[in-house]
Amino acid sequence: xxLDIDGTITDDQRLLHPRAVExxxxxxxxxxxxxxxxNVHCFTRAAxxxxxxxxxxxxxxxxxxxxxxxxxxLLSDPAICQEAYRRLKEVYPLAKKDSRYRITDLVVxxxxxxxxxxxxxxxxxxxxxxxxxxxxVHIKDRKVDKGRAxxxxxxxxxxxxxEVAAVGxxxxxxxxxxxxxxxxxxxxxxPELKAKADYVSGEEFGPGFCEIVDYMVAEEMI
Length: 222
Ligand SMILES: O=C(O)COP(=O)(O)O
Ligand SMILES: [Mg+2]
What we know:
Keywords: Carbohydrate metabolism, Hydrolase, Magnesium, Metal-binding. This is Phosphoglycolate phosphatase. The structure is a single chain. The protein is of the alpha/beta class. It has 2 domains: about 1-75 and about 145-220, HAD superfamily/HAD-like (Rossmann fold), CATH 3.40.50.1000; about 80-140, Alpha-Beta Complex (Hypothetical Protein Ta0175, Chain: A, domain 2). About 35% of the residues lie in helices and about 20% in strands. The protein contains 8 helices and 12 strands. It has helices at about 20-30, 40-50, 80-90, 115-125, 145-155, 175-180, 190-195, 205-220; strands at about 1-5, 35, 55-60, 65, 70-75, 95, 105-110, 130, 135-140, 165-170, 180-185, 200. Helix 1 (about 20-30) packs parallel to helix 8. The longest helix has 14 residues, at about 205-220. It starts with a strand and ends with a helix. 2-phosphoglycolic acid binds next to loops.
């Protein structure tokens, strides 16, 4: 299972839900859980350790892949994001967040018109785009997303589409839905994601995620 963190196993304040922790524990005994997050590498790694999930995981919305302990692969060019930030800052009052720990993308506060900024990036011919997870606005390399990184992980681990489920809440999870065979969204997910999901939970956040795991067990998918 490719599993998102914020808004899927946490609440809207990013607090980990105890029932989601229990559900991840159940998954760990049945299958491999790969965290796929917009969070930085060190945060995602700490989550993997605390949840007992695979040390192969995806961070920074696909910009960083951790291949088990010790090997890290960067899929994005940080210079692309830096240049986009520099140009956008000439127009908007951008404020960086947790930049010290970011390796590839940049996170800024949501104090500007994202769609307008994206069309400016395109107009300037830059290779960067923006994605708003509902928790953070990321300036990222356009060729990077959670789905492309997940496809790389599947390839290396020899996993077919039918063997992979993706679970998430935000627009940043949509690219994962293109490569996974089973797609599930929590009820608090964005409409664009829920529209593409095979299963949408009735409950929101952590309890919704538990419901998804219960459904997959009942349907003998795991
Ligand atoms: O970093 C974010 O913006 C949100 O993190 P997520 O991808 O785990 O939901
Ligand atoms: Mg999320």
